[in-house]
Known about the structure:
With 286 residues, the protein is mainly α. Helices cover 80% and strands 0% of the residues. It has two domains: 7-138 and 186-209, no CATH class; 229-285, no CATH class. The longest helix has 38 residues, at 188-225. The model has no long low-confidence stretch (mean pLDDT 80).
Amino acid sequence: MFEIFNTREIALFFWSIIILTWILSKMESWGSFKKVLSTFFSDKIITPILLSIIYAETIILILALFDYWDLKFLKDTLFWFIGSAIISIFNANKATENPDYFKKNILDNIKFIIVFEFIINFYTLPLFWEIILIPFLLIISLADKIFQDRKEIATKKFTTGILTIFGIFLLSFSITNLVKNFEAFASLNTLKIFLLPIILTVLFIPFTYLLAVYMKYENMFIFVGFRFKNKQQEFNKIKWRIFKFCLFNLNKQIKLRRLQSFSYIMSLDDLNKTINEYKSPVANNG
């Protein structure tokens, strides 16, 4: 029977509490904290998260109906949602400029790194060492990213070397335990846990895709709308025409928005000319 939380997860929780306490202590007053909360719970943030929870629950219900999901996967599902799902929601704006974002998202989750991370997280160190290693590796990782951004090659080689050594150590530790306890590892339950985040991520893509489509429409309508403050009826026709042309095709939205003539739409006729320009062979080859 699997433990509810492994030592790495307990250590992460421990440091999360400390960091959260430190952040709260730095806030000047309760008013500052209220401002942070009001920002987080604004409609533009909380609505997609609430909708994503409903969508994720629907996915889990479907998986449960097919006997793939039960309560023992609750912890792994929560970690997936807090990590992968929430990050994909906040990264949906990247998809509004790059329709290949979703393809890359799938590939990133199916690459061998998933196997690598899964094996490493399956076997963890004693709690004392996990508590010590997590902040150390976090600081080294942040330093490595900073040195990369600053293009300090020599220093980055040092930090990358440290991360590589620890990566090899953790992988060796995990593989050694895997060989010693292969029967416990090679089970249907382990396979399900391994595949669960991949399945959830793939099934969650339609939600993030529709969110990106909505965000793109919002961006396009705001960009055009300020010219029609006193012409709401015509603006509604323009919005409907854009929607009829693009529907749920994010690639069409992106290409239409990038046309130079889209920046000068002052009427429905102007929009129709822009759409005709989009349909022209020159625009499609560009």
